[in-house]
Amino acid sequence: MKLPSVVKALGSLCLLLADGFPVSEDESPKIIGPRRVTIKAQPGQQLLLHCEAFANCEPDQTIIYWLINGSFPEDTPSSGRIVESEESTLAEGAILQRSLLLKNITSEDLKSTFTCVVTNAAGTAQKFTRLKRSGCHVGKTRKQ
Question: Which of 43, 58, 77, 102 has the fewest CB atoms inside 10 Å of its own CB, making it the most exposed?
Answer without folding.
Answer: 77
